[in-house]
Amino acid sequence: MTGGRAEGPAGGVAAGAVEELVGVGVTGVHGIGASVFEVDLDGGGVVVAKFHAAAGKAGVEAHGLRWLAEPGAVAVPEVRGVDGHWLVIDQVEPGAPSAAAAAELGRGLARLHAAGAGAFGEGPRESWIGNLPMACVVGQRWPEWFAEHRIRPYLRLAVDRRALSPAQAAPVEAVCARIEEVAGPAEPPARLHGDLWNGNVLWDRHDRPWLIDPAAHGGHRESDLAMLALFGCPHLDRVLAAYDEAAPLAAGWRDRVALHQLFPLLVHVVLFGAGYAGQTAAAARRVLAT
C-alpha cells in the first residue's frame, strides 16, 4: 500500500503488532500470504510479520530461527520481535536461484548440520511441522527415534483420518519394523532445519541462500537433504555435490532418500489428504526393496 497505514483490518492489526514489537512506526502493510505481511517501516526498511493462531507457535519459530542462526552457517532472517501470536523478521530481498548460490547452500547446510544437537529430537517440546504438532522427544539412537517419533505418529493420524488405507499403511509399518536394517551407518545428531522443502529456501540478489519457516530440531542430516529433493529444488545437483564435498555423505545415502522422505510425505497425507497416499506407500516399498 502507498501513502497509508494498512490494507484492510488484518493489515491494521499487523501494523499495530509491528509497531509494538519493533518500536518503529509503520507506513504501509502488504499481504503476501495467509496471515503473512510485508510491512514498510517509518524511515525505511521492510520487515515480514507472521500471525500464528496457535498460541506459542510464533515463539517456537523464533527459537528455531535463532538456533539455526547460531553457527553462522546459512543466512537466516533476524528475529525483530515475537509475542504469543506474532513473529516479526527481516525481509529478504528476492533474487533468482543460481548455480553459485546452490553450491553455497550445499556448503552452508553441511556447516549447519555439523554444528550438531544435543540429541535426536532436541528442540521445543511443543513444536510444529506445518500446522501439525511435532513432539520433540529426545533419543540417543536415530533409527528407533525416527520410527517412533517421526513416522508412527503421522501414520496413525493418516489411517485414523482414512487418508491412508490399511494396504497403503502396511509397507510403512514394515519399514518401522525393519528400521535398524535400513537406517544406514550411525550418525551424530545434526542441527536440522526440519522442513526444508524448496519453498523454505529464499535466494537473494547477491547469490546468497536464506532459510525460513523452520521446524528445527536435532535429527539425521540426510533428512534435510531428502526433503529438499522431495518437491524439487533449483540446481539440486549442485547443492548435493557441494554438500558431499564439504562433508562426505555415508555410502548408500541415495538409497536412503525414500526412508527420510516418509516423514514429510506422511505429514502431507495428514494435512492434504489421500492425494499423497500412493506416493507414500511407493516410497516405503522402495525402502523395503533396498
From TrEMBL:
SUPFAM superfamilies: Protein kinase-like (PK-like). The keyword RNA-binding does not apply. Belongs to the fructosamine kinase family. Keywords: Kinase, Transferase. It holds the Pfam family Fructosamin_kin. InterPro entries: Fructo-/Ketosamine-3-kinase, Kinase-like_dom_sf. It comes from the Bacteria. The keyword S-adenosyl-L-methionine does not apply. This is Ribulosamine/erythrulosamine 3-kinase potentially. The lineage of its organism: Bacteria, Bacillati, Actinomycetota, Actinomycetes, Pseudonocardiales. Signal peptide: none annotated. One of its GO terms (molecular function) is kinase activity.
